[in-house]
Amino acid sequence: MSHSGDDSFSDAAEECYNAEFRSYPDDAWYNVRVLFAGNSGDKMRVKYDNFSDDYDNIFIADSFKSAYEVYDFIGRFRKASAQLQDPDCSMVVKGMRVCSSDSFGNDDVRFYDAIIDEVLHKKHSYVNGQEECECTFLISWLHGPNVGNTTDKGVANICLLQGSEIPPKLASFIEIALQKIDKALCNSISGTSNDLVAPHKDNKGSPIVKWKPSSSECIRQPLSAVWPLGGIEFGCASKQEETDLGGDKNLHKILVQNLEKELSSSTVSEFIHKQTSITTRVYIFPSLPWEPHTNGVIMMNCQKDLERLLGFLQNPNHFIASLNGRPWVATEKLLTNDHWTLMLSFPKSCWIEQ
Ligand SMILES: [Zn+2]
User: Fold this and answer.
1) How far is the CA of 136 from the centre of ligand 1 (A)?
2) Can you give the CATH number for the domain in which 68 is found?
3) Where is the SAWADEE domain (predicted)?
4) Per the domain annotation, does 86 fall within a domain?
5) Which parts of 8-66 fold into alpha helices (H)?
6) Ligand 1 centroid, distance to 121 Cα (angstroms)
């Protein structure tokens, strides 16, 4: 992991190791560069920072056999995370997803994602004029050898996620891979529906609003008192356009991570409407059997609704969690070129219904 401040994947930036790849053998995040291996764009080389060329991975576009494999592959890339700086420790709050280092013996340090369970703040000290954070971060590992376990970490172990934007070369490689499997996949799946709201059998993952202990006086307040539905103009002229979800630039999207795998699109949509009166369409991505959680995208027609919904999901007075206690992590507005948007562009009839 390196921690460059580059905020986009320009051609020049692609020369740097400014992407992260979650490697297949150990599921840990590594800083990488993405290159084409050949002239046609259907072969891609992933080079690891601080490792020799012997460790390069070569991927071939037509080697993907299913939508799940493509989904998993795209989800293994993102912008390189940034080391948390001592004076910025207050940016890290409960429920936030971070990337953290974990040690497995002498020189074996690997990076995995985790959710912040608690931050125990301590007064910062100053050494030679430099601010030093002595806070403790209680994290719960989302993957890796310690998945599900809780660990104490210091500021030096915490990296901030920088978004799911992917390098242009990877986007172009994925396009080719999708084209290659598209036909075969569509032919092989029968009985799928165009309805994006997949029916789910139970609602164990149903979301609820949990008030933070510090705002216990809010518990008996109706949500409208905290979330002023009547106080602001809301709602947009409804548009009936039907869409290719990934490509429609009129749709505004929020990525929500750390969802229960049993959660259905309709449950999320109904919950949001009940709480905020915002009409949304929700897509829950398929997850792999060994993944402890899944991710979804909430889509709506107007920017004003998006800002309101982000305000609701990121309200410091409460958090949204499943009945099982798993907190939602609504971190991003989706960009047109990140991997989530790319996955939404994938022909919906080809997604395997969950
Ligand atoms: Zn601190």
Assistant:
1) 8
2) 2.40.50.40
3) 17-159
4) no
5) 11-14
6) 6
Task: For residues 150 and 18, state if they share a domain.
Answer: no
Q: Residue 265's domain spans which residues?
A: 194-350
Residue 4 included in any domain: no
Structural domain count of the chain: 3
Same domain, yes or no: 223 and 269: yes
CATH of the domain at 270: 3.30.70.330
Which amino acid is residue 239, in one-letter code? Answer: K
Of the candidates 167, 29, 25, 47, the residue with the CA atom closest to the CA atom of residue 98: 29
Same domain, 49 and 118: no
Q: Is the Cβ–Cβ distance between 102 and 109 less than 8 Å? A: yes
Buried/exposed 173-189: b ≥16 CB within 10 Å, e otherwise = bbebbbebbbeebeeee
Distance 82 CA to ligand 1 centre (A): 16
pLDDT in tens, the chain (354 residues): 544 444 455 545 556 898 999 999 999 999 999 998 888 888 999 999 999 999 999 999 888 876 667 767 888 888 999 999 999 999 999 999 999 999 998 889 999 999 999 999 999 999 999 999 999 999 999 989 999 899 999 999 999 999 777 888 888 888 888 777 766 655 554 433 333 323 333 445 677 665 544 333 333 232 222 222 222 223 343 333 334 455 566 778 888 888 888 888 888 988 888 888 888 988 888 776 666 778 888 988 888 888 888 888 877 667 787 776 677 878 666 666 666 776 776 544 334 333
